[in-house]
């Protein structure tokens, strides 16, 4: 009986050892399975790109053409620039004839100048001496200058100007404005001499003008003469400069003739 008990104890120990080995093998298999399950996830994480922040789905709205979202400072600056642009659209025709953009004052005073033609130089000389009792463009003062055109040419090629005399209603210029042309070309030409107040922002004010028909001028008279300044003259209907000649030929082609009634082209 004592042997049998020992034998049973040995059998129990062997069973315990087998159970322990089986448990260890199961734990090892579980660990292997866990590792197998974790490996794909790790590999996926290793190959995955880092997430980038998504762009803002609601970008800021651009400023509308009407500047409805612009701050007040930008609106005022924009309106100032627009006003300045419209006021500086001068050009020869606008500076000579425009009434709305350049402003108007009551014309008064006179201008003194002389005319001389130099045959040797083939040159017309307009000697501008002075003005007297000009209109006040600002508070008891003007910044005048004299500008001339040889009409009917009103382009920049025909424009001449004196320097500006600051803060004077009786300015002295003593300047000679010159034009190169043949004396026979003076026929049909008119000298337009105008006085303007110079504004630093380009809004020059018309102070008066004088027009002299050069075709009837006494060229023997080279003495300075006083001329009263006149209000702005209206645009003459035939005062446009000639820029060439166009010849036309008319021909009537009856229907049914060669060309099907259509004029030949060429």
UniProtKB/TrEMBL annotation:
Keywords: Membrane, Repeat. Gene3D superfamilies: C2 domain. Residues 1-40 have a biased composition (Acidic residues). Residues 1-87 are annotated as: Disordered. One of its GO terms (biological process) is exocytosis. PROSITE patterns: C2. SUPFAM superfamilies: C2 domain (Calcium/lipid-binding domain, CaLB). One of its GO terms (cellular component) is plasma membrane. CDD domains: C2A_SLP-1_2 (cd08393). This is Synaptotagmin-like protein 1. Residues 73-87 have a biased composition (Low complexity).
């Amino acid at each position: 009986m004592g042997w049998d008990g020992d034998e049973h104890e040995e059998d129990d120990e062997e069973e315990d050892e087998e159970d322990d080995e089986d448990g260890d093998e199961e734990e090892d298999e579980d660990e292997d399975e866990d590792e197998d399950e974790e490996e794909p996830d790790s590999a996926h994480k290793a190959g995955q790109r880092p997430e980038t922040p998504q762009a803002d789905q609601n970008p800021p709205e651009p400023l509308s053409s009407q500047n409805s979202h612009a701050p007040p400072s930008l609106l005022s600056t924009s309106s100032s620039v627009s006003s300045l642009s419209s006021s500086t659209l001068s050009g020869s025709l606008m500076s000579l004839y425009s009434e709305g953009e350049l402003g108007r004052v009551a014309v008064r005073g006179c201008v003194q100048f002389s005319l001389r033609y130099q045959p040797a130089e083939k040159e017309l000389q307009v000697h501008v001496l002075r003005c007297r009792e000009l209109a006040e463009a600002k508070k008891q003062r003007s910044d005048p200058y004299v500008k001339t055109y040889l009409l009917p040419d009103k382009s920049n090629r025909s424009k001449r100007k004196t320097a500006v005399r600051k803060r004077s209603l009786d300015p002295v210029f003593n300047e000679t404005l010159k034009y190169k042309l043949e004396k026979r070309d003076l026929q049909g030409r008119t000298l337009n001499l105008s006085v303007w107040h110079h504004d630093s922002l380009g809004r020059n004010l018309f102070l008066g003008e004088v027009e002299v028909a050069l075709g009837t001028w006494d060229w023997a008279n080279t003495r300075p003469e006083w001329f009263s300044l006149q209000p702005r003259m209206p645009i003459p209907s035939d005062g446009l400069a000639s820029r060439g000649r166009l010849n036309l030929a008319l021909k009537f082609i009856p229907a049914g003739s060669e060309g099907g009634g259509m004029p030949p082209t060429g």
